[in-house]
Write a structure and sequence with these properties.
It is built from nine helices and five strands. By secondary structure, the protein is of the alpha/beta class.
């Protein structure tokens, strides 16, 4: 039989760990949420050490995502893509900023090559990053893939502002703990 449907979900614990009633003003508050999601995802055994959140112009959560690659046997179920897909479904648009004004993605770690491409097309205006790709590769078994040499400039050229190293040490703490664990496979 040919499969004709894909079904991806966030773990049930997300509802208890995300406060959708409050605003997350400032870059650190947004990235702190992404890092908390990454930490809980590892602690719960529900995926890899990556978290992301999409915010509207009023600093409110539109969607969140965590890495679900292994639980769903799906190589595209990264934290960023999960957050993008859930926001796109919620708003019924593939370009988020066309429907709701300025959009920010906060992520615990720099997007890999796939998530970089998704960021270009998702309608994101600001990208907030905790750990760098070199941190991910040094502290975990993951290969982040190739990016353009001046990937930050390429995003800026498309109107996407990039802010790196927001709570980098905290993000690296999660990556390190994951990389040193015997369950480092998600």
């Amino acid at each position: 039989m040919l499969y004709a449907q894909v079904h991806l979900t966030l773990p049930a614990w997300v509802h208890a760990h995300v406060d959708t009633t409050r605003a997350y003003p400032g870059d650190e508050a947004k990235v702190a949420l992404a890092i908390a999601l990454s930490r809980e995802n590892v602690d719960a055994g529900s995926g890899g050490p990556f978290g992301a959140a999409v915010f509207d112009g009023q600093d409110r959560i539109v969607s969140v995502g965590v890495n679900r690659v292994m639980p769903h046997t799906c190589s595209v179920a990264h934290a960023e893509t999960m957050a993008y897909m859930l926001a796109q479904q919620r708003l019924q648009t593939p370009r988020l900023n066309e429907r709701m004004g300025p959009v920010t993605l906060a992520t615990s770690s720099q997007p890999c090559c796939m998530c970089y491409g998704a960021t270009v097309w998702a309608g994101i205006d600001r990208l907030l990053i905790g750990a760098r790709a070199e941190d991910v590769e040094a502290l975990t078994p993951f290969d982040e893939g190739p990016l353009p040499e001046d990937w930050v400039g390429a995003l800026a050229g498309r109107g996407i502002a990039v802010v790196r190293d927001v709570l980098r040490d905290e993000a690296c703490t999660v990556l390190r703990a994951y990389g040193e664990s015997d369950g480092a496979k998600y």
